[in-house]
Structure formats: C-alpha cells, structure tokens
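Summary of Year 1 activities. Much of the first year was spent building the evaluation harness for sequence design. The harness presents a backbone, in tokenized form, and records the residue chosen at every position. We chose the following record to illustrate the format because it has been used consistently in internal testing since the harness was completed.
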C-alpha cells in the first residue's frame, strides 16, 4: 500500500463503505484512477479551502468565491478552481454590476469616457472592449494583464476595458467557471447539492474584433467526473463530451482532471498551434435572456456579431484559456 494511487483508491473505498456504498455498487466501471490513461492529473474528492471568500457583495447576494488546494496521487498540489490575480490585478470598469449598485438600463447611461486606458504601445490605437463572462475573466494584451473581472462568481456582471496597442496584437483570456464545492466543479443548484455549473465568454472590440470560432480555446480543469473512461483526447482536444452533466446529492467523491498551465501562455510569442478552435454556443445555451448585465447591452455582444465561446464542454470544463491574434 505504499503506492500513492493505491492509497487514494483505498481511501475512496473506505469513504464509500462508510456511507453504506461500495465502489462496485455506487459507481460504474471506470471509476478507479488506474482506469485512466490520459495526460491529465486526476484528483478525487473535496479540496482544502485556503481562501474562504475573495468577494463580498455590498448590495445583494453573491455565491461564495473560495479558493482551494487538492493533491493528486503523485503529490502535486492543484489550485481550484484556478490560480488567479483577482486580489492584486487592476479591475475592469463595471458596465453592469449589482453589488456596486451599477445598474444602467443601457449604454446611454454609461460614462464610457471614464474608462481607464491600459497602454501597451504609446503610439498604438485606442481600443474599447465589451466583455461578459460566466463567471470570471482575466484579459491579457500581448502578455500584459490589462484587467480582471470585478466579480469572481455571481451575481452576473459585465465590463468595459480600454487599451492602446499596435496591430498585430494578441488577446489572451483566462476564463473560470467558479465552483461552490471546491475541487468538484459543482454548486448547490437546481435542487441538487452537487450540480455542475456552466461557463461562457463573449466580447466585442471597437476595432471589429469579436469572439468567434477563429479563437482558440484549451481546457485545463474538468470536473465533476464520475466515470474516468468518459475522458478522451485527440488532435489537441481534451474531451469530456460523453461524461454526465447531471446533478446529484452524492457528488463528494467525484474526480477532477487537471492539466499544467504553461507559464507563458498569455505571451505574444507563445506557440498555441496545437490548441483547438473555440466552440460556439448560442445565447439560449448559455442562458442570458434573464441577465440584465448582458441583455441591457446586447448591441455590443451578439448585436456586434460576437458569439459565446468556450472549450468543447461548457458545463464540465472549468478553467479555459483563450487566444486570438488580431491582424
């Protein structure tokens, strides 16, 4: 029993037996770590909370935005839902943000001239961007962190950014679908204690750049996984399309798949040729018809020709990195 993987398997068996279940009767085949042969590191169960809450909503209610750590069978510690710069980075200008009582009915009520400009190139073009992320984004231009979302989890908000840069330039975005149950990719929702949330990112920029299938999207954290044989890989894609997205009240022993984030992934010179193209999602699939942070400014999102993008699984993929080169 000195093998770390065996120790995790034994621990999971003890947990299931203690609840009156067994690995054979509670889960399908393919739920042992030894059944997985892909490139991800696999963890199981709830992460240790290391930051209880990154955000307090002053006007209204927000879900807890915690940070956790969980160790895989090889002893590597993973941060969940993802490492981020929320506490230290410049925040995006709020387009709509209920917690700050910024609730304009449309663009006419927004003082766009007050948005600060991040200077990448002093002799560059000034560009304005409109962003809606489910749940959180970090925006890099040519490797420089321009702004991060002002709300990590909920309520849903939207943002304006401005930056000055010369073409060609590279947009890189870290997007996180936050989680309430750290390490499990789930939240208490839709009548289930462990229900996977979904993501989504859309943006348009004043130079005509919009999110579409020309962008690249690679996943680095997928959860919850109850049957590891549902994970597959091919042609740069990390796929979970056959994995269940149903909620449950018994999800505390779910697995998660993690991939190491390249240190220079946001840089202009980073080689992302192996990354797959982004997958497009409709407004109905993301579910924005009841979100004023989006609908009040729809002319700057789908109305500007932008589409919602994510990796291949908008429900289970929780940390996704996006890249696009503007010519």
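For this record, the design step produced the sequence shown next.
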């Amino acid at each position: 029993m000195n093998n770390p993987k065996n120790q995790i398997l034994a621990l999971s068996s003890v947990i299931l037996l203690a609840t009156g279940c067994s690995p054979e009767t509670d889960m399908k085949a393919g739920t042992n770590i030894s059944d997985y042969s892909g490139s991800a590191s696999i963890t199981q169960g709830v992460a240790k909370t290391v930051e209880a809450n990154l955000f307090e909503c002053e006007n209204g209610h927000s879900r807890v935005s915690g940070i956790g750590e969980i160790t895989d069978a090889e002893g590597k510690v993973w941060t969940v839902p993802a490492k981020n710069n929320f506490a230290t980075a410049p925040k995006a200008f709020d387009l709509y943000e209920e917690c700050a009582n910024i609730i304009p009915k449309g663009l006419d009520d927004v003082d766009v001239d007050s948005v600060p400009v991040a200077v990448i190139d002093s002799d560059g073009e000034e560009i304005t961007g409109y962003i809606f992320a489910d749940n959180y984004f970090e925006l890099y231009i040519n490797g420089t962190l321009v702004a991060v979302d002002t709300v990590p989890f909920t309520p849903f908000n939207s943002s304006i950014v401005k930056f000055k840069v010369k073409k060609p330039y590279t947009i890189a975005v870290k997007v996180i679908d936050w989680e309430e149950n750290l390490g499990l990719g789930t939240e208490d929702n839709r009548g289930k204690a462990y229900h996977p949330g979904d993501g989504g990112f859309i943006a348009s920029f004043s130079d005509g750049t919009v999110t579409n299938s020309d962008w690249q999207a690679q996943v680095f954290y997928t959860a919850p996984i109850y049957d590891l044989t549902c994970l597959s890989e091919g042609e740069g894609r990390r796929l979970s399309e056959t994995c269940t997205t149903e909620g449950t009240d018994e999800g505390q022993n779910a697995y998660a798949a993690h991939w190491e984030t390249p240190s220079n992934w946001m840089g202009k010179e980073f080689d992302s040729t192996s990354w797959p193209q982004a997958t497009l999602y409709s407004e109905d699939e993301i579910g924005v018809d009841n979100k004023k942070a989006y609908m009040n400014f729809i002319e700057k999102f789908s109305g500007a020709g932008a589409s919602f993008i994510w990796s291949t699984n908008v429900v289970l993929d929780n940390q996704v990195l996006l890249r696009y080169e503007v010519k």
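The chain has a mean pLDDT of 92. Quantitative recovery figures across the full test set are reported in Table 2.
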